[in-house]
Amino acid sequence: MAGQQRVYRQRIRSTQSLKKIFRAMELIAASRIGKARAQVDAASPYARAITRAVSAVATHADVDHPLTTEREDSRRAAVLVVTADRGMAGAYSASVLREAERLVDQLVEEGKEPVLYVTGRRGVSYFSFRRREMAAQWTGSSDAPTLDTAREIADTLLGAFLSEGEDAVGELHVVYTQFVNMVSQTPRVVRMLPLEVVEGVAEPGTEPLPLYEFEPSPDVVLDALLPRYVRSRIYSFLLQAAASELASRQRAMHTATENAEDLIRTYTRLANQARQAEITQEISEIVSGADALASS
Fold it and tell me: What per-residue string of b and e applies to 1-10 under the rule 16 or more CB within 10 Å gives b?
């Protein structure tokens, strides 16, 4: 009985230490989620404005641009997978990787060759363990992405799409997690290239697209706007993923803290039961000894 009591006390101490770690990580995530959500909100107006500008050029100008034209000379499809650098965030990275695997299977069924571009150590470890080749990888800033990182990723993907030869890609897909609110974060798959303009025609009841005069020409305007559009979209995806990661980590650590408290209560009850059993056994031994002495 004494041995059981020591085991339970040791488990209580170790669980209390884990509870402190979980609580600290929950507070850190909670303190950073506000900034992440503010960055998402701050980047949205620019993304909407440049989307409307690109839509206006594509709608009112009859031009064929490499970023808006289907490529027939390449069956390779780039897949950018946005995951986390660290764990302890519930099913955040697992959900993104599951969507990425589903997309890869779909591309293979269509006769295309997926080419992986991965951000976040969780995704890099996942594909490295399975000996899957990655064309490029970025780590170290999943929960606090910078514009420089987004520009580097966008330039790498644009270079692969605009290049010629066997290393060129004909499509670009992005798998990331969309931040809906603090409770809901949804994995999404978006095809970015060739560009599909979704705001070409204004819907009834919405503000019509503005009229532009293109100087010096629509081709030059598209050359300047489309790379900026791709960079802004990728930066927006990274910000959405960062907010989703922090929200998932806060929720997971809150649940882990509550589970640790339940374990502590359970182990405390078991330790008290073991202590009571030990005391009962000692009393029984004393009474039995006294009875034996009295009878002799």
Answer: eeeebeebee
Burial of 187 (0-12, 13-18, 19+ CB in 10 A): buried
Is residue 74 a contact partner of residue 165, using CB atoms and an 8 Å limit?
no
Task: Supply the pTM of this predicted model.
Answer: 0.82
Provide the token pair at 56. 């206006």
Which CATH architecture does the domain made up of 27-251 adopt?
3-Layer(aba) Sandwich (3.40)
Domain definitions of the chain by residue range? 27-251
Would you say residue 184 has pLDDT above 50? yes
Report how far apart, in Å, the C-alpha atoms of 275 and of each of 3, 5, 261, 271 are. Answer: 10, 6, 21, 6
CA distance 113 to 258: 45
Instruction: Give pLDDT tens digits for 80-117.
Output: 999 999 888 888 999 999 999 999 999 999 999 999 99
Location of structure tokens 């995951």: 83
186: β partners = 178
The residues, any chain, with a CB within 8 Å of residue 260's CB and separated by 6 or more, are 15, 16, 18, 19, 22
CA distance 66 to 149: 24
Q: Three-class SS of residue 62? A: coil
For 162-222, give the DSSP string. Answer: H--STT--SEEEEEEEEE-SSS-EEEEEEEEES---S-SSPPTTSPPPPP---SS-HHHHH
Nearest to 214 by CA among 57, 55, 46: 57
